[in-house]
Amino acid sequence: MAAASAARTVGRRSRHLFDFFVAEIPWTVSSKELKEYFSQFGAVQRCQLPFDRDTGFHRRYCWIKFSTPQDVQNVLQKDSHILEGSKLTLKQQTRRKRSQRRTPRE
Amino acid sequence: MVGPRHVGPAAAQSRCAAHVPRAVMAALLSSAGRLRALRPRLPPLLPPLLPPLRPPRPDSRNTSQIRFLTLAPQEEGRVKEEPISEIRTRPTWQFDWALNKVDNSVRKTGRIPKSLLLKIFQEMSKAGSPGSNQTLLLLRSCGTLLPEVVSPERTQLAHMIWDKMKELGAVYDTSHYNALLKVYLQNEHKFSPTEFLARMEEANVQPNRVTYQRLIAAYCNEGDIEGASKILGFMKNKELPITEAVFSSLVKGHARAGDMKSAENILSVMRMAGVEPGPDTYLSLLNVYAEKGDVDSIKKTLEEVEKTEGYLMDRILMQVIFNLVKAGYPQYVEDIKQRIRFERELIPDAMNLCLTLITHGFEDISFSILKSFSHLPRDNMDQGSFFLQHCVNRDMPVKKLKQYCNELKEAKMHSAPLTFILRCALETNKPALAIDVMKMMKEEGLPLRPHYSWPLLVQYHKEKNLQGVFEVLKVMHELGVELDAETYTDYVFKNFADSETARSQLKKNGCLFESVELHVAEIRWEAANGRLDKVLSILSSANTPSIDCRLFRNSLIWGFKSSDDVHLWSKITELLYKDERYCLTPPGPTEAVGYFLYHLIDSMSDSEVQAKEERLRQYFHQLKEMNIVIPASHCNGICRLLDSSQVPELIKGARLLCDKKSLSTDNIPESAKSDVSALEKKLEKRKAENQPITDVLKQLIHALCEEENMQKALEVKAKYEPDMVVGGYAALINLCCRHDNVEEAMNLKEKVFPKSSPVALDTGKYIALVEALEKHGRLEDAINILTEMKEKGVPISGRTVASFSRILNAAAMRGDVETVNRLHETIVNLGLAESPVLHSPLITVHLEKDDMPAALEALTSCYKKYGKILQLHNIYCRLVEKGDAELLQKVSDFISREYGDMMALYDLFFAFLQTGKYKEARKVIETPGLRAHPGRLQWFAKRCIMNNQMETLEQLVELTQNLFECDRDEMYYYLLQLCENNDDWGKAEAVWTKIQEENIVPREKTLTLLADILQKNGQVVPFEVPKVRQEDSRSLSAAVEEERKIRMLCKKNKGKEAYNVFMKMQEKEEFHAYSYDALIKALLAENFLDEAMEVKRIAETHIKGFTLNSAASSLLIISQVRRDYLKDAMAVLKGVLDSGMLPSRPAATALIQAVAEKGDLKNLQALKNMLEDVTKSIDLSPSLMANAVALAHVKTNDLDAAVEYLEPLLISGAQNPDQAVRNISYLLRKVSEEGLEPALKKFGVMAERLASQFGIYRPVTDLFLQYVSADRVDDARSLIQRCDAIAREKRTLGSFMARAATKPGQAKMIERLLELIPEHLDTEVAYRYLLRCYELDGDVASVKAVYEKTKAKNVQLHELSLKSLAVFLKNVGEPVPFTEPPETFRFYVEKWRNRRLEAS
Fold first, then answer.
1. Which pLDDT does position B664 carry in this prediction?
2. CA distance B579 to B321
3. Which of B162, B546, B1166, B1226 could be cross-linked to B581 through a Cys-Cys bond (beta carbons 3.0 to 4.6 Å apart)?
4. Does the beta carbon of B125 lie under 8 angstroms from any beta carbon of chain A?
5. pLDDT the model gives residue B43
C-alpha cells in the first residue's frame, strides 16, 4: 500500500518534470513570448512562469517542457539565448528515472 | 520546494563568478599603460622591472570609506536587476540571505537601497532580539551608503534604529558606538562629542583608538580645533598612535575655523611626526579648497600630487566635484571632470556621485557625469538605469524623464529607457506615471502587454479601489492591449463576488470588452470556485464562443474535486464530449475526454479516490449511459491509477468507457531469479549425470573469485577446461591480476581473448591487466593492451579515467619519465580518455626529479596540446624557492599571455605567500586594477587551513586588505577557522580587534565561531553572542529570556542546571518544542532519565501532539535501555517510527541487544517487524537481528532452535548480497563472554559445517577471531588447522585489526594473529595496526621493538605508519631512526584511504 502510493507519487512527479529551468527572464516578457521564443526549437509542451500575486510581477524564472528529447537538444545547440536584450540562463533539469507505468500520453 | 527561493542569489553569484575575470581583463587591457608596466614584477629577483609607481595605500581605519570610493567596476545594469519587490514579498524572511544581500550590495556598489535597509529593519523589529552584528550592520548603513537619502533623514534613521534595537534588547559595545560616530561624520550631523563620550561611559563601554579618531573628526567638522586638541590629549595620555586619519581631520578643522594656512601646514607637521600624507589627507585638503571655491589651489595641489606621489586621483576628484556643487560652484565642475579618466573601474563611484547629486537636486549635473561614460562599450548592458530609477523615486516630472530617456537612447547608452521607467513606476506604485509612460511607449511603437497592467491591478485590489481597476481596464483597451484570461482570473474577478457580478459591473462602468479570453476566464473562475452549475450554464450558453477545453482543464478538475454533484460532473463531461465548440480540433472528443478523465483521477490522492469511490462509479456509469467512450490507452492508464489507489471495484466502471476497437493487453514478464546453492556439489552431480555444466561452472568460478581463492579457481579451471566459457576466464584473469600473477593472467588472456578475436574483456579487467603489466615493467605489453582496448571499443567511464590516472601517477612518483610519457601518449592518442587529471603526471614526474626546465616544458606542452594548465602552483613555488628568475619570468609571461595578467598575478602572489616572501607578495597584490577573485582566494585560504599554515594565512588576510571587492568577513572567517582548529584563542581575539579597526560588520557565523573559540578556551566573550534565532518570538518577555537561558545552558551541557531553571519557570506555555528537545537531550546526555521524563510529560501537556525529535528520542531509548526499562523504550521507538522519524543506529542496536539478552523472543519479533523497513535507512547490519534472535534462543536454553534459525540464514545470506546475514561475531562474543560453553561449541560446529559443506567461511572466521580475542590461542590454532579457509577472509581479518587499533590495550590481539597466521596476513597492514596499538598504549619500548622487527623482517611500512611513528617518537622525546615523511599526517591518511579504495 505504502509502496504503491510512493510509486504513484514518483509516477506523477516524473510526468511533471520539466526540461529546463530558465532564469533571468526580463520582466517585459510573459509566458506567451517565452513560448514563442522557444517554439523555434520544437513544440513547447508547458511553460510555467510564476507570477507573484502580491506584486503583479513575475519572478523572472520559468520552467519549460518540450515534447521530445530532440527539441531539448536543439535548445542546447544554441550557445546563448537572448530575449528582448536579456541573456537567459538555462539549466537543464535532470530527468529522474521514468516511472514503470507508461502514461497514456505516450 | 527550495528551488525558486534560492535561485535568485545563487544565479547572481554564479553569473558574477563567471563574469569577473573577463571584466577585469577588459579593465586591465583598457588601462594597459598602467598595468603592463606592473605585470612582470618579480621582485627581488628582477629589481629593474619593479615599477616606481606606488598604489594608494589608504589608512586602514578608513577602509570602508576608501573601498566605497574605489569600488571595482560593475555593470550598472546589475543594480537594476535586483528588484526590491522580490524581497518585499518573500513569504518567510530569509535572514542571513538578507544580510548577505546588504553586504554584497555594499561591496559591489558601495551603497544600499533604502527600501532594502528599511525592510530588514522592519523584519528585525518583528523578529525581536536582534543580534549584535545585525544591529551593527543596520547602523553602519545609515551614512553615505544611502546616497539616495538626504543626510538628516539618514541620521534620523540611525537614531530610530539605535533606539528600537535597544528596546528589543540589543547590547551595544564599542563597535556600535564607533559605527554611530562614523554615521554622524558621514552625515555631517552636529552633536556634542563630550556628551557622546559621557553616554559611552554611562553605558560602561570603553572608547578605543577608533572612537577618539572619530571624535576628533567631529570637532574638526565644526572647525573646533580646541575640542580636537582635547581628544588628542586623551590619546597621547593613553599612548595611542596618531595616524593619518587624525591629521586629515585636522586639515579640515583648521580650514573650517578659517585658518587655511594652518590647514596647509598640517602636511609638513605630519611629515615631521613621521606620518606620510596619503590619499586621505589630500582628499581632505582638496575638499576644503572646494568648499571655498578655490579651483586654482585644487589644480595646483593636483599637479603636485601627480608629480610627486603618482596617485590615481580619479576617485578623490569625484568627491571634490560634489563638494564644489554643494558649496555653490557648479561652474568649476567641467574643469575637474576633464581630469578624470572615466573608465570602468570608476563606474560604482560615479553612480554614487550621480545618485547623491540627484538627491540634492542637481540632476542635470548628475546627468552630465553619467554621459561621461557614454564612450565605454556597452556590451548589451544598459547604462543609466540607476539614474532613471532614482529620478522616478524623486518624482521627477514626466517631461524631464522623457528628455533623459531620449538622450540616453541617442547616446546609445540604454536600449529601452522607457520600458525601464515603466517598471520603476509600477514597482513604486505610481499609476499616473505608469499610464503616461505606456502612452509614450505606444507612440514609439513599443509593444504593450497585458501583464504590464498587473502591478496596478494588484495595488488597486489591495486598496479596494474598484474605480482604479475599471480605469486600468479602459486604458489598456484604449492602448489596444487585449487582456488575457489570466488578467481577469488573477487580478480582476477577485474584486467581485462571482463572474456574473463582475460582468455586470464591468458593463456598467464601460469596460466590458468581449473576447474569448474573457470567457475562458469566466469558466476558470467559476470552476476554480467550485460553482459547477455556473460552469455548466456558461458552457451551454449560446453566447459562449469556441474554446479548446484544454484551456480550462485544470480549473475544471479542481472544480470537480470540490463538488459532490455527480450529475453536474456528467453533464459537463457530456458537453465537452458532444459540443464541438470545446473539442473541435484533433485529436477529437474521445481523446480529449479520455485525457481529461485521466488527469482528473491522476490529480486525486489515494484517499480522495477511496472517499469518492461511489461517486466515481456513478459518474463512470452515467458517462457510459451517455455513450461516451475513451481510447483504450487512456482507459488503461486510468485503471492503473485506480489499481494503485486500491479501488479494484472502480476499475470495472472505468473499463466500461473503453473504446473496444483499440483494446490491447500488456503483460510484463517477470524476470526469473536463479537460486544457486552448493555449486560444487551441483557441479559434481551434473557431471556425474552427464548434463551440461557450463553455467554451474561459471557460477563456481565467480564464487571462488569472490572469495579470492586463486589457487582453487585455477585448479577448477584446469579440471573442467573444455566446459569453461569466456565469462569464467574473464573473472579468472582479473583474479590473477589482483594476486599479482601477471604471467598466468597474460596466458589466459592470450589464449581466450587474443587481440585478433572480436571478443573483449570488460573495462575493469583490461585496466587490471595494464596495471599489473606496468607494475612488472612490461611497458610494451601494457601499451598493447591499451591499443587493444581502443580497437575493441571498450567503454571508458569516469572510473576508468581515475584508474588511468592512478597508474600514471604511480609511475610519476617513481620518476619514471619514459613510462609516464609513453602510457600517457598511448591513452591520449588513442582517444581512450581526455581529462586534466591524466596530464598532470606528465609534469609531476619532472617535479619528482626536480628537473624544472623539463617541468616547464611539460606545462606549456600540456597547455598547447590540451588547453590545460596543471601543477602550476607547485611549479611556481619550486621556482621561487630556487630563485630561478629566468624561468619564473618565463612561466609568468606565459600565464599572462594565455590567461591574462590577473591570473598570473594571483599565481605569483600565492607562490610568494607560500614560500614566505611576503614583501614580494604585497607588491604583487597591490597592483592597481587587481580585484578580488573569491574562488582563487578561497582556494588558497582553504589550502592554508588544510595544511595548518597560520602565518601564511594571516599574511593572505593582511595583504588583501585593500583588494577591491574583497569579502573581508570571509577572509577573517578563514583565519578564525584555523584558530579554531588550533584552539588559538589569543589569535582569535586579535582578529576581533582587527575586524573593528577595519570597520567591518562580521556575519553572524563569524561571530558565533569567534565566540565558540573563546568560550571553548575559557575566555570571556567581549560581545553579545549571536543566539539561535527563534522563528516566532514577538517580544523579549521574561519567559523568552528564560528560554534562551535554558537553551544556552543545554548547549553548554549543563542539563541539570537548565532543568532547575525550567522547573522554576512560570509560563511554560511559551516554551518551544525545540527547546524541549534540547533540554531533554541535555538531561539524557547526563543520564537524568527521571528529570527528562518529567520534562517530556510537561511538554506533552503544554504542546498538543508534542513528539520528541529523533535525536532526543534515540537518547531516551538508550537511557531507558541502560535502566532496563525495555517496555518504555519499545514504546518510544514505536512512537518515533509512527511519526515518520528514524531512530539512531546506536539506539536501535542497544534496544535489540537488550531484548535479546532477556531471551524475549516475542518482543524481539515485534522489534524486528518495526525496524524491518528502516534497517537500510539507519544502516543497521542485517546480521544484527539474526544474531539477536539466535542469542534469545540461547537465553531460553534452546540451542537447537538457535542453530535451526541461524544456519539457513547464513547459507542464503552467502548468496543474497541484499539481505546478507553473514557474520555471527556478536553472538559468539556474547556466549563466550558469558561462559556459555555448550552454546559456543554448538555454534562452532555449525560454523565448521558451513565452511566445509557450503564454502561459507565467514562464521568460522568469526569463531577464530573470537578465540583470538578471548586469548584461547590453542582453540584458535586447532581451528585453523582444521579449516585453513579462514585465512582467505582477508577483509574480515583486516577489519578486525583495524577495529583493534582504535582503542588502547588491544595490541595482544594482533600479536596473536601474527603468531597464528603470519603467512596469511598482509604484513604491512598488520604491522601498521600493531604499531598503532602500541602508540595508543603509549608503550614506547614495544613500539621501538616492533619497528626493529619490521626492519629485521624487511617489512615495508606505509608512509602513514612512518609518519605516525615519527610523531609518536618525537612526542615522547625519542630520536626518530628514519627520515620522517615530509607531508602532513592528513595527506598520508588520504593516500592510505585511496589505496584502500582502489584495492577494494
1. 37
2. 74
3. B546
4. no
5. 33
Say yes or no to pLDDT of B162 above 90: yes
Q: Tell me, rounded to whole angstroms, the distance of Cα B914 from its chain centroid.
A: 27
Q: Quick check: B180 and B162 in contact, CB under 8 A? A: yes
Between CA A64 and CA A50 the distance in angstroms is 12
Interface of B with A in 388-427 (CB under 8 A): 415-416, 419, 423, 426-427
Check if A7 contacts B (Cβ < 8 Å): yes
Which three-class secondary structure state does DSSP give residue A51? strand
Is residue B347 pLDDT above 70, yes or no?
Answer: yes
pLDDT 10s digits, B1139-1182: 777 888 889 999 999 999 888 888 888 888 888 777 777 778 87
| Integer CA distances (angstroms), B820 to B737, B772, B807, B851, B1175, in order | 21, 15, 9, 15, 47
Q: What is the pTM of this model?
A: 0.50
Residue B20 has pLDDT above 60, yes or no: no
Inspect the interface and report whether the beta carbons of A4 and B644 lie closer than 8 Å. yes
Least confident of A73-82, B204-213, B572-581, B1132-1141: B1132-1141
Give, for B184, the enclosing helix (H) or strand (E): helix B174-186
**A4 close to B (CB below 8 A):** yes
Chain B residues with CB-CB distance to A52 below 8 A: 85-86, 89
pLDDT of residue B268: 92
Angle between helix axes B1340-1352 and B1359-1371 (nearest 10 degrees) is 150
- Written as one string, the DSSP assignment of B211-248 is HHHHHHHHHHHTT-HHHHHHHHHHHHHTTPPP-HHHHH
Contacts with B89 from chain A: Cβ below 8 Å: 52, 54-55
From chain B, pick out residues whose CB is under 8 angstroms from the CB of A23: 7, 11
Which letter does DSSP use for residue B724 in this model?
-
On chain A, the residues whose CB falls within 8 A of the CB of B631 are: 104
Shortest distance between the Cα of A41 and any Cα of chain B, in A, equals 23
Task: Report chain B residues whose CB lies below 8 A from the CB of A36.
Answer: none
In sequence order, the β-bridge partners of residue A66 are: A44
CB–CB of A21 and B3 under 8 A?
yes
In the predicted model, what is the mean pLDDT of residues B237-261? 91
Element at B913 (helix H, strand E): helix B901-914
The C-alpha of A48 sits at a distance from chain B's nearest C-alpha, in angstroms, of: 12
Of the CA atoms within 13 Å of residue A12, those in its CB half-sphere come to: 17
Residues in chain A: 106
Query: Are B89 and A55 an interchain contact pair (Cβ–Cβ within 8 Å)?
Result: yes
Average pLDDT, chain B: 81
Q: In this complex, do B455 and A32 lie within 8 Å of one another by their Cβ atoms? A: no
Residues, chain B: 1400
Q: Does A78 touch chain B (CB under 8 A)?
A: no
pLDDT tens by residue, B120-150: 888 878 777 777 777 888 898 899 899 999 9
Distance CA B769, CA B612 (A): 64
* Least CB–CB distance from A30: residue in B8, B451, B595: B451
Q: Is the pLDDT of residue B1372 over 60?
A: yes
Q: Please report, as a single letter, which amino acid is at residue B628.
A: I
Q: How confident is the model at residue A10 (pLDDT cuts 50, 70, 90)?
A: very low
Residues 6+ apart with CB under 8 A from B156: none
Residue B765: other Cβ atoms inside 10 A: 22
Q: Could you tell me the three cell numbers for B847?
A: 617535479
Spell out the alpha helix ranges (H) of B927-1071.
Answer: 934-946, 950-959, 968-982, 985-997, 1004-1016, 1038-1051, 1055-1064
User: B451, A101: Cβ pair inside 8 Å?
Assistant: no
B26 compared with B1199, residue with greater pLDDT: B1199
Question: pLDDT for B1210-1249, tens place per residue?
Answer: 887 766 655 677 788 889 988 888 888 888 888 988 988 8
Min Cα separation A61/chain B (Å)? 8
Over residues B765-769, mean pLDDT: 86
